[in-house]
Amino acid sequence: MKIKISNLSDGIHNFNFDEPAADVGLEEPFFGNISIDVELNKIHSQIVLNAKIRMQAEFECDRCTNNFTSTLTYSYKMVYLLGTEPENTEAINLTYLPADADKITLDFDVRDYAMLAIPMKKLCKEDCKGLCVKCGKDLNEGDCGCKREEIDERWLPLLELRNKINNN
To answer: Where are the alpha helices (DSSP H) in 43-143?
Structure first.
């Protein structure tokens, strides 16, 4: 994905891309097309890029181990400055381009930010009940009938707190 910036007038410009995940270097769990909406604001020797990425991914639920498909979105902002880069600059979301640069390539940024969109805890649904610790039955499909052991009295205050939170 490239945006041609040579001869681009000052002001706001919008671009839309819809490309296969593999074309930007994304593999599993991503599949299908990656959709990117870009708003590019050019002001003299500075370009501010706002992008919103939408993609499909397939995960295994961390609680019940069922596979599920999720639509992920991620927005990011990048500032491009035309000119030479000063020494000791390690700014995040700031890129220096040569004064004669004619295009901006988005592939690397899109790949990196797509990876950041993957949730830490992958759940098929927010209230997934998971698997029974005794028999392994998926508790989303119904109760398994396993006998529940008595809870150690030391844990009762925490259980009461959890019940209060769930009832509110």
So the answer is: 107-116
Name residue, tokens 């950041």. Answer: 116
Measured CA to CA, the distance from residue 23 to residue 123 in angstroms comes to: 28
pTM of the model: 0.72
pLDDT tens string 44-102: 888 899 999 999 999 999 999 999 999 999 999 998 888 776 666 666 677 788 778 88
CA angle 81, 87, 92 (to 5 degrees): 50
Helix (H, G, I), strand (E, B) or coil at 123: coil
* Nearest-angstrom CA–CA distance, 62 and 58: 13
Q: Which of 42, 63, 50, 55 is nearest to 114 (CA)?
A: 55
Cβ atoms of 49 and 78 within 8 Å: the answer is yes
